[in-house]
Amino acid sequence: MTNFGSLLEILAKNGVEFILIGGVAATAHGSVRLTRDLDVVYRRTSENIGRLVKSLAPLRPSLRGAPVGLPFRFDQKTVESGLNFTLQTDLGALDLFGEITGGGRYEDLQSHTIQIQIFGVNCRCLKLRRLIEVKRAVGCPRDLEAIAELEVLFEESQRKNPRDN
Amino acid sequence: MSRLKKKRRSARTHPAKKAAPLRVDPVIEAYKKDIDRTLIRESLKLTPEQRLNELMELQRFAEELRKAPRNES
Fold first, then answer.
1. Cα–Cα distance between A56 and A14 in angstroms, integer?
2. How many CB atoms sit inside 10 A of residue A114's CB?
3. pLDDT for the residue numbered A161
4. How far apart, in whole angstroms, are the C-alpha atoms of residue A121 and residue A21?
5. Is residue B6 domain-resident?
6. What percent of chain B has pLDDT above 70?
7. Which of A14, A145, B18, B21 has the fewest Cβ atoms within 10 Å of its own Cβ atom?
């Protein structure tokens, strides 16, 4: 099980610049689908990577699904050399994206976010409309049902608050 | 002009802008028919934090179900 609240709290309280995307962002918008991992796009500046590493290192991140014994060190150099990481931490599954298909990097997505307050911290969350566009851009067949749900959510939210999303 | 009149005139000249509709994809439209809107409407009544708490509860429940002993009948 992934403790979404604690992971978000740790990232936010350590000043990590990130954007909530994926299933948890969909849940924050109202999706009722089950998701198991926390997906975030992190800002790829040296300072932010430093904060990211410092905040996650105590959670002993390892590469999820990698062969047992594969050496992996979660440090500044590793994150700067790589881009996207699928991690297993002591608080659950966490996917870190330096860049996403159809959305780009943190800086590209920043203007398509809303601030949400959850578990006592403020987080940037990708807007529902952009979330749909990103999922559509990925074009994964298993996402079709999820996209349909997000679009229904978009329609229902529009009915309630026409200015939102 | 009274404040109320100004407000009414403003509402007429600056109506709440609706976001542009999404591009229609016939495949997604077909999937949409099976989405339970009642669950979504209920979810929209909650705060983001309440929704995430429900998600974690659901995860816990799914984990319990996975671990539950099974007997052949």
1. 10
2. 18
3. 78
4. 16
5. no
6. 73
7. B21
Taking the whole predicted model, whether its pTM rises above 0.95 is answered as no
Cβ distance A151 to B28 less than 8 Å, yes or no, reads yes
Going by the DSSP 8-state scheme, the letter that residue B23 receives in this structure is P
| CB contact A153 to B (< 8 Å) | yes
Is B8 a domain residue? Answer: no
> Best mutation site among A117, A135, A151 for testing chain B: the one with the most B CBs within 10 Å?
A151
Instruction: Judge if ipTM > 0.95.
Output: no
Report pLDDT for B18: 61
Q: Indicate left, alpha or beta for A153 from its phi (over 0: left) and psi (-120 to 50: alpha).
A: alpha
Domains parsed from chain A with CATH numbers: 4-160 (3.30.460.40)
Amino acid type, A143: D
Alpha-carbon span B55 to A23, nearest angstrom? 10
Q: Considering the domain boundaries, does residue B4 fall inside one?
A: no
Tokens 């542009």, residue located: B20
Token digits for B13?
Answer: 């000249």
Is A11 in contact with A40 (CB distance < 8 Å)? yes
One-letter amino acid at A110 equals Q
The verdict on A121 touching B (C-beta cutoff 8 Å) is: no
Tally of domains in chain B: 1
Q: Parallel, antiparallel, or unpaired for β A37-42 and A92-97?
A: parallel
Beta strands A113-118; A121-126: pairing state: antiparallel
